[in-house]
Write a structure and sequence with these properties.
Strand order of the largest sheet: 1-2
Distance between the termini: 41 Å
Low-confidence stretches: none
Number of strands: 4
Oligomer: single chain
Order of helices and strands: HEEHHHEHHHEHH
Mean pLDDT: 86
Length: about 250
C-alpha cells in the first residue's frame, strides 16, 4: 500500500488539474440582458484566479510525487505514465482553457466580436497539444536527466496560470490592455508551444554536483524571481520564466 502513495499523489495532481479546468470554464465570458435598453451586455468574466491556484497546487504535488517515489523505492513505469497523463491535464489542458477565455474576452471587445467565429479561439488548444507531444517525447528519451530538451510542461503551465493573477491584481491600464489583446495571446501560444516542442537544452532541478558553477543558474533565477516579486508582484512569474529560458541557453 505504501508504494501506491506516489501514484495517489500523481492522481491528486490530476484532480486539481480538473478543478482548474472547472474554475476556468465556470467564470467564462457570459451575456446579460438589459431590460431597460433591450440590449445584450457583455459581462466581464469574474476572477478565475482559482484556476491559477489549482494549477499551482498541482505543480507542488507534481514536484513531490517523484521525491516520494524515490523515498519509498516505488518508482515504476505505471507511475511515469500516470505522471505524464496528469501533467497533460493540469499543465496543458487547464492553461489552454485559460488562454481560450482570455482570447474570447479580447476578441469580444471589438465591434461585432461577440459573434466572431470560434476559429479565432481554437489556437488556444495548440498549448495542450504541444505539451502532450513534449511529454510523449520525454517518455521515450532516457537522456534527459540533468538537462531537459525543451521547456518542461509544468513550467509552461505555471507561466500561463500567472496571467489571470497579473490581470486581476494589476492596477496598470497599459498592462491590462496588453492582456486583453488577442495578438498578445497568439504570441504567447506560439512562444510557449515552441519552447515545449523544441530540443533546446533547458536546466532541470537535478544536480550532478553542488558546485557554485552548477548552482549559479538557479541562484540567478531565484534572485530575479524574488526581486521581481517585490517590485512587480505576479509579473515576476513570466519574468522568472524568461530568465530560466535565457539562463538555460547561456549555461549549457
Amino acid at each position: 500500500m505504501i508504494k501506491q502513495i506516489p501514484n495517489l499523489l500523481t492522481l491528486l495532481n490530476l484532480f486539481f488539474g480538473c478543478m482548474a479546468i472547472t474554475a476556468a470554464m465556470q467564470h467564462g465570458l457570459t451575456l446579460s440582458y438589459d431590460y431597460n435598453t433591450g440590449q445584450q451586455i457583455l459581462v466581464i468574466p469574474e476572477k478565475i484566479f482559482l484556476a491559477s491556484v489549482f494549477i499551482a497546487i498541482a505543480a507542488v504535488i507534481d514536484f513531490f510525487d517523484g521525491f516520494v517515489a524515490r523515498l519509498f523505492g516505488a518508482s515504476s513505469e505505471l507511475g511515469k505514465q500516470l505522471d505524464s497523463l496528469s501533467d497533460v491535464v493540469s499543465f496543458g489542458v487547464a492553461p489552454g482553457i485559460i488562454v481560450y477565455q482570455f482570447l474570447q474576452l479580447s476578441i469580444a471587445r471589438h465591434d461585432g466580436g461577440i459573434d466572431s467565429s470560434i476559429f479565432w479561439l481554437l489556437p488556444a488548444f495548440i498549448i495542450p497539444c504541444a505539451g502532450a507531444y513534449r511529454l510523449g517525447r520525454f517518455n521515450i528519451d532516457n537522456s534527459q536527466s540533468t538537462v531537459f530538451k525543451g521547456v518542461p510542461i509544468p513550467a509552461a503551465g505555471l507561466v500561463i496560470a500567472s496571467f489571470p493573477l497579473i490581470y486581476w491584481y494589476s492596477n496598470t491600464t497599459v498592462l491590462n490592455n496588453i492582456l486583453l489583446n488577442e495578438w498578445f495571446w497568439y504570441a504567447v501560444i506560439f512562444l510557449i508551444s515552441y519552447l515545449m516542442v523544441c530540443t533546446l537544452p533547458m536546466k532541470a532541478l537535478k544536480f550532478s554536483g553542488l558546485s557554485f558553477k552548477v548552482l549559479l543558474p538557479f541562484i540567478i533565477i531565484a534572485i530575479v524571481a524574488v526581486v521581481a516579486a517585490i517590485l512587480v508582484g505576479w509579473l515576476a512569474v513570466p519574468l522568472a520564466f524568461l530568465t530560466y529560458v535565457i539562463v538555460s541557453l547561456i549555461f549549457k
